[in-house]
Design a protein that fits this description.
The protein is mainly beta. The chain folds into 3 domains: 19-140, no CATH class; 228-389, no CATH class; 395-471, Immunoglobulin-like (Sandwich), CATH 2.60.40.10. It contains 3 helices and 50 strands. The strands form 6 sheets. It has a 27-stranded parallel beta sheet that branches. The chain has a 9-stranded parallel beta sheet with strand order 13-16-19-22-25-28-31-34-37, with no helix packed on it. A hairpin with a 4-residue loop joins strand 46 (424-429) and strand 47. It is elongated, with a radius of gyration of 29 Å.
């Protein structure tokens, strides 16, 4: 009798360990996939019909059967109704292959296809999502917001290619083709505390500005292509090109290390308080950019300048950077900009040594000239300035108009391309009352207007026309 009881216990345990539920076909009424009946093996496509909800409990494992290397014949989960799959940190919900693929293809199922025309919806959290081609995709623009917490997407061709606003917290994207892309019509990405590694691309063709904070990008072929947005406290390590062909960028307190290219084709926006170390190219910037208080060192080329000067252009504002010990050039001027960079330290006390690491019009007459200064060993005190060209032929001398950036502004106003004798600046409100006065002997000027209340003001100086500025 005792042996029989032991055998029954063993058989019950054996059955529970190897329990599984095969699923395919249509779901026509509200259905729950339970942890007790997990794993669920999708042996064919599953379609959730309109006004029906498929609920998946925390801890459930959904395994996908490999049917064919032909994408059109592969398994998919189609939602004409709603999918509610909300896992937890301790019990995520998994969508993974049933076994190692035999075709040699990483993408062995189509993914989750949401048919909004039929009322399809998703509510997902704490999921693991692997080896699909389309990832999670919608058939139309979703003018809404999707949130994902502690989700992992691995070995998908596209992870999230949805025209919508994505909010991602503590998510991981690894070994995918593209993490977020093809948001041509509508959509943005807010990512905090996320990890992107070994992807072909992280974000590409996102129509609205993105916001990324405290996130890591490592070993990706390309990180960002044709996007705009703000990045703060991010790490970019061992990637190919991090930023390329992008719009307006604001990058603050970030770290670029051993990338092929840190920032390329960068124009409007700002890069502040960041480090560029041991990259092929640290960063390349154009007009209307602010490059301030960065460390640019031990790259092949530290800082590049790109573009052609034209009337009405706001030249790059480059100040308080340490541009030191780069292998080929500390600065390579591929533009015809003439700039004064005396307020940047090149970590050398000898002018000949500094100039040898600056590639400009002295090396190629089609390029512009760069003025610079030698500092003491602490990079705090200028010991001598080296002026190659008098900067009195900029925008201001052509039109007698000030070139300022940004406008409207929040706190700081940047002015550049000035004649050397301009040193007094006054800001007046609309009633003609002086709100601020500042003095400077620099060709590039930054005015701190953070103490002014929001509103309309006029910037005035002796040699230029007044400029209307807006603080918000």
């Amino acid at each position: 009798m005792k042996k029989l009881l032991l055998l029954l216990v063993f058989l019950i345990g054996f059955t529970s360990i190897y329990a599984q539920t095969n699923v395919s076909g249509g779901i026509f009424s509200n259905t729950t996939w339970t942890k007790a009946n997990s794993p669920y093996i999708m042996t064919g496509p599953v379609v959730v019909f309109p006004n029906v909800t498929l609920t998946i409990e925390p801890g459930v494992v959904v395994k996908i059967k490999e049917l064919s290397s032909n994408l059109s014949l592969q398994v998919y989960l189609e939602l004409r109704g709603k999918l509610s799959a909300k896992g937890t940190s301790a019990n995520p919900i998994s969508f993974i292959p049933d076994s190692t693929t035999t075709t040699g293809l990483e993408y062995m199922w189509q993914g989750i296809l949401v048919k909004t025309v039929h009322g399809g919806k998703i509510d997902l959290d704490h999921i693991i999502f692997n080896n699909s081609y389309y990832g999670i995709s919608y058939d139309d623009v979703l003018y809404d917001t999707l949130r994902f917490n502690e989700c992992k997407f691995n070995h998908n061709q596209y992870a999230l290619a949805i025209n919508t606003n994505l909010i991602l917290n503590n998510c991981e994207f690894a070994n995918n083709g593209v993490a977020h892309s093809l948001m041509y019509v509508y959509g943005s990405v807010t990512a905090k505390n996320c990890i992107y590694k070994n992807n072909s691309a992280c974000m590409a063709f996102v129509s609205n500005p993105v916001y990324v904070e405290n996130s890591t990008y490592e070993n990706n072929t390309s990180c960002f292509l044709q996007i705009s947005g703000k990045f703060k406290n991010c790490d970019f390590k061992n990637n190919g090109k991090v930023f390329q062909e992008n719009g307006t960028l604001e990058i603050d307190s970030s770290y670029f290390f051993k990338n092929s290219v840190g920032i390329d084709a960068f124009g409007v926006g700002s890069i502040k308080n960041s480090s560029f170390i041991e990259n092929g190219l640290g960063l390349s910037v154009g007009a209307s950019s602010v490059i301030e208080n960065n460390i640019i060192t031990k790259n092949d080329v530290g800082l590049g300048l790109a573009g052609t000067f034209s009337p009405g252009m706001v030249l790059p504002f480059i100040k308080d950077n340490k541009i030191c010990d780069n292998i080929l050039y500390n600065l390579e001027n591929k533009s015809d900009f003439n700039l004064g960079l005396e307020n940047n330290c090149f970590c050398l006390t000898d002018s000949v040594a500094i100039d040898a690491k600056i590639y400009d019009g002295y090396d190629d007459f089609t390029r512009g000239l760069i003025n610079f200064a030698a500092y003491d060993s602490t990079c705090t005190t200028i010991t001598q300035k080296f002026i190659k060209i008098k900067l009195n032929t900029g925008i201001a001398s052509i039109k007698k108009e000030l070139a300022v950036f940004p406008n409207p502004l929040q706190d700081k106003l940047y002015i550049n391309g000035l004649s050397e004798n301009e040193n007094t600046w006054s800001v007046y409100d609309t009633l003609g009352k002086k709100a601020l006065e500042a003095n400077t002997d620099e060709n590039n000027v930054v005015l701190d207007l953070s103490d002014l209340t929001n509103g309309v003001y006029f910037l005035r100086s002796a040699n230029y026309l007044p400029v209307k500025i807006i603080k918000y």
